[in-house]
Amino acid sequence: MGNLPAERITPTYPFNVCGVDFIGPFLVKPVAQRRITARKMYVAIFVCFVTKAMHFELVTDLTSEAFIACLKRFFARRGKSNIVYSDNATKFVGAQSELKRLSDMLKKPDENLSAYLASEEIKWKFSPPRFPNFGRLYEAGVKSFKYHFRRVMKNTKVSIEKILTIISQIEGILNSRPLTPLSCDPTELSVLSAGHFLIGRPIKSVVEPEIIDTPDNRLSRWQITTKVVKFIWKRWHRDYLNHLQQCSKWQFEKNDLKIGSLVLLQEDNLPPCKCVIGRVKDVIPGSDGKIRVANVQTQSGLHRRGISKICVLPMNNNE
User: Which segments does the entry list as coiled coil (predicted)?
Assistant: First the structure.
């Protein structure tokens, strides 16, 4: 494997170097009324190359004016970027005409967009044609959002207020994911997340009553929005923990579960942005000498779990 690009490992403030990609279209109503025609809108996903933080912006159409407004909102909230990467857009060939128009606008900016980028001294770079590995970082952000959003919403028409609420909460969910331990102290349970780089502390959501099993006809409009976010959180959280537990072919003996390792526990019905974090207190091998069970110390006490319910964070300061 080659070395990471300099932009990925050079310390800098969040979103100084970022990638952008679009997903959509989504059918969005200006207001939540029945006889209002829905319009096609899109979501721009900005991914920081250094911190892996994400930022979502709603784009109302495919004009350069709408995209410039999107960039201005992004820069006003996260600071101006010096370098922005985007896909070369060859993958859009033969795809929906709307996405092709969007890709053409990014590849050949018109006078308004070119003038804005030049005035702000922003370098716009493209990944090589037919080389998706160059955009893997922001493509992963698109996949995380689109995969779960489409399966929950199922092309439902939503109001602009509702989709803004949903994408903001999904942004918080993705920026709350644990990245690595903050300390090698066995009594310390804090983890580093993208939220630490953005607001200086973990991102947490408001605790709300459990309504996932409640029929939609018994819920208000905002309760349905909350239910959608919880569905997306539940699906994404499960997939993220499964990703941490991915197993390769057993070509040699390997055991990642060690005493003192910082781990995440698989628990059901957790609220959004909430993860159960603990340290492995001791391990219990089976009759064959393989570790099957472990005792994990969390803030709420000592828990005994099978190793299938324990996920070791990707990096550990002890190693």
Answer: none
3-state SS track over 55-95? EEEEECCCCHHHHHHHHHHHHHHHCCCCEEEECCCHHHCCC
Residue/partner pairs of 187-192 with CB below 8 Å, 24 or more apart:
187/279, 189/262, 189/277, 189/278, 189/279, 189/298, 189/299, 191/262, 191/277, 191/313
Phi, psi of 77 (to 5 degrees): -95, -30
Q: Which of 150, 153, 205, 152 is nearest to 174 (CA)?
A: 205
Residue at 246 is within a domain: no
Identify the CATH number of the domain in which residue 297 sits: 2.30.30.40
Separation between Cα atoms, residue 57 and residue 22, nearest integer Å:
10
**Which residues are CB-contacts of 60 (< 8 A; sequence separation ≥ 6)?**
39, 41, 66
Which tens digits make up the pLDDT trace of 242-277? 777 765 555 555 566 888 888 999 888 888 888 899
The domain in which residue 266 lies consists of: 255-312
Q: What is the pTM of this model?
A: 0.81
- Please give the share of the chain, as a percent, with pLDDT higher than 90: 16
Same domain, 281 and 146: no
Number of other residues whose CB lies within 10 A of the CB of residue 73: 15
Task: With respect to residue 249, please indicate whether it lies within any of the assigned structural domains.
Answer: no
Q: Which of 213, 232, 224, 219 is nearest to 172 (CA)?
A: 232
What CATH number did the domain enclosing 66 receive? 3.30.420.10
